[in-house]
């Protein structure tokens, strides 16, 4: 098993002032949809938030709700908190606006990460996605050092870690649709693309 972290804090985690994670999607609350997928491969699940109160009644009692150690650091702050408090050495980190998470893809990424590297991340459309990646818990120390730089970004983190980049073809060969890296900002674009490519929208 591995730990799973959902990053649900900061402005990126909100839409019109409401937490994106608590919005409905495909007939269920997005956060609950994500937790359901994480449970397939994670028995330790954490949600990193700025304000815990809205989430307390939205999840089961075994889900840990945590806040950032370093406030105002965006994704890096949430990643650092999740990695620091994770129970397992391999940690699957996702964003709260990602409706198409794939546990099967996470297992592929974990196998790559456990080959002795810091992290395994998916690459979609030539873009390295730090989210939906599987990280060594030890990456918390890397992030802590990186955050001493006020201009630190997730992209800079990718450049400082020893990572494996998993291309779309790797997932497609395993029968996994590579749309799992998309977030809510991309849903409309995905719908249009799915129609063209005759892919079922889930």
TrEMBL record:
- Molecular function GO terms recorded: GTP binding; metal ion binding; nucleotidyltransferase activity
MobA-like NTP transferase domain location, by residue?
Answer: 4-150
- Work out whether the entry's keyword set contains Chaperone: no
Note the Pfam families from the entry. NTP_transf_3
In the UniProt record, does the keyword Aminoacyl-tRNA synthetase occur?
Answer: no
Q: Which biological process annotations from GO are given for this protein?
A: Mo-molybdopterin cofactor biosynthetic process
Q: Which UniProt keywords apply?
A: Cytoplasm, GTP-binding, Magnesium, Metal-binding, Molybdenum cofactor biosynthesis, Nucleotide-binding, Transferase
PANTHER family per UniProt: MOLYBDENUM COFACTOR GUANYLYLTRANSFERASE
What protein name does the entry list? MobA-like NTP transferase domain-containing protein
